[in-house]
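Researcher: Please translate sequence to structure tokens.
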Amino acid sequence: MTKILMRVGNLSLKLKLTLGAIVLGGVLLLAQSVLQFYALRSEVLERIERQQFDLLSELAAHMDDQISERMTALAQAGTVVSPEMMADPVRMEDHLREETALLSMVDDLYLFDAAGQLLVDWPHKPGRRGLNMSNRDYIQQVRATLRPAISRPILGQATHQPIIVLAAPILDAEGNLVGIIGGVLNLFKQNLIGALADRRVGDGGYFYLVAEDRTTIAHPDHDRIMRRITEPGINSLLDSAFAGFEGTGEGVNSQGLEGLFTFKRLATTRWVLASVIPSGEAFSSIYVIQRRMILTTLLLILVATPVLWVLAQSLLKPLLRLADAMHGCATRMLRGEPAIAVAETGSPEIRTVARAFNEFLKARNQAELALQRLAHHDALTGLPNRILLADRMEQAMTEAKRTGRTIAVAYLDLDGFKPINDRFGHHMGDILLQELAYRLSDVMQAGDTLARLGGDEFVVLLLDLKGLDDCTATLDHLLAAVREHIHLPQLTDPLSVTASLGVTLYPFDDADPDTLLRHADHAMYQAKNKGRNCYQLYDPEEERHHATWQANRDCIYAALHAGQFELYYQPKVNMRLGTVVGAEALIRWNHPEQGFLPPGQFLPLIESSELDIEVGEWVIRTALAQIAAWKTTGHAIPVSVNIAAAHLLHPDFPVRLTAILAEYPSVPPGMLQIEVVETAALEDIARAKLTLDTCRHLGVSGALDDFGTGYSSLTYLRHLPIDTLKIDQSFIRHLEEDADDLTIVKSIIVLAQGLGRAVVAEGVEKVEHGTTLLMLGCDLGQGYGIARPMPASAFLPWMHGWAPDPAWLETLALGQDGYADATVPARVS
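Model: Translation complete:
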């Protein structure tokens, strides 16, 4: 199809016009022919439908009359038969033989007794008399109603051919049934019904007769007699006829014949009488007319083609002359000569085309000038764009190498521009950028370049600098120009923005233009991190440090997804009761080259980053999975996990924690504890309180880790929903030697007990630590003196073999040290 369209597109306009006129005319003529054909077909169809229905109605009425006549004759013949006559088979046979009028209407006559046994038949066929017909439907109907009945199509027992039996009762003087007289219509013979199969409608049409149960009574195809004409749902027209429709419609029968089908019910039997006319025969005269119309259309097209060709040649001559003139103009333009406008003469249409071409030439010249400017300047501010900036940087760097002067490349990004854009709309943002471009240009020296890269990003190229002081003075002026309030006529209040500048100096930073821009951009982000509204000189050492830092982060990210992290578990015990009350999950990096690394060697590298949150979620998931694994062995061991400040204060932390808990439905939320360091909770006390409140609502408890190393504000402690305080190991390490540490630990224990918090001592590394803590009333502890962090596989064996130190038991037994009345903290759950 595509090739055909391409070939048509390559044809001349003259040929296209001719072909178009021919096609259009042909389509119109064919459309008219089609419309006339269908109008005529509709008219013929209406006439045929009416004629066929009238014909079928007359035939149905005739058959109803014939059936009624035969039923009446049978009933009258039955009235002259007496019970005495029925007792004499010879007399009955003589009687049936004398019923010549009735014999002319049916093929055979039967005489049955009241029980349905065949007594006499005429014409007589051997083996028929004495047959019991009591199971025949017509016998049962007559016996039940004492009225004439017509059977459904049945197979004759003697002839083995399909028959219809008309039956009437023989009654005695009291109205009792004494016999039944029946007349047989053989469906294969030329009788009232059998003759219907030989009747034709036209050349290929025919009639058929169907009983109410869809059994075929008469049909040109004798093999279909006594079979179902079709199943419901196959022929919708026939289905509607059985539903009560009488009339004519178009359709397709079960044999695939398209035709007109007419239906009429017989009043006497409720049988459906149908006629069929093939569509080709019904509309043959119309098809002849259609072929003639098509031939006439083709002849008209053949005659019109040369006339249209000559007319197209005449119409296109002026256009060809104009095309030659336009071609000559284009040739001069290609040679670099000035284009000359074509003459606007000729017909109105030709003058319109010539005028449009001349206007195109004028617009093209203007567009070339505009494109040249757009290719090198920013459309909003009119400042040089990236392309022109790169060209000027190349020139400036070449000149700097020649003269030994310094040039500065400064990357400027506005602070707080996005909120203004979002609040007042992009239109006001564009006006602000235009005003700032004007101000900055006014600060620049002649020969310097101010370029806009897009959005709120600008680049300043400073030339011929005598030293660093020249550069910093200009940068200060640029920052001051941005800081000044901007009054826009559409706004009542002035707008205020600041800028961050990153600067690199060439040839000290001896790089290509793209790298210089990247270095200046990196320095600009450093200026933003310093607090904004300032400038920052590019430092290559800082760049290398940043690259190393990023490489380390990439390694940690790869290790997380390679499964190199593992959780170790340090037990938390009740030293008074001698029980294991939980464990703290501690992350380790199984480095493929450096072995197991503690968290202090890699977690600081990802602090406050998205990767920090990703690692934290991995820790929570792994801890929950381990709790579930221990639970399957019958051990309910609570686990606490350390959460970084950035992770805890992230707005999505409660939602994500809820989702992770849902992944482990077998783990009660109370078996997970969130540990946060004191300084993390104090970064944003309101956000921390809200998050910990949500955790408590979920069933997850909170612990304040390293307590005593931060501000230790009692106000914060009172408001934070914390269940456990963990005394920092720095106070425990010298507990038995340093009176100040002893006082602080004692105070923390009393404070925690007063606030209803559990207290856990970290860093229990010696037996003496545990002894002193028990004397102070602190029962819960963890540290190397109890157990070092261990892999999950080693935890249960250690737990089953652990027992408290005898010195602790001895201390508890004495209980005479003045601390026996101390409240025992609640067990961590």
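Researcher: Any highlights?
Model: Residues 536 and 801 are 61 Å apart (CA to CA).
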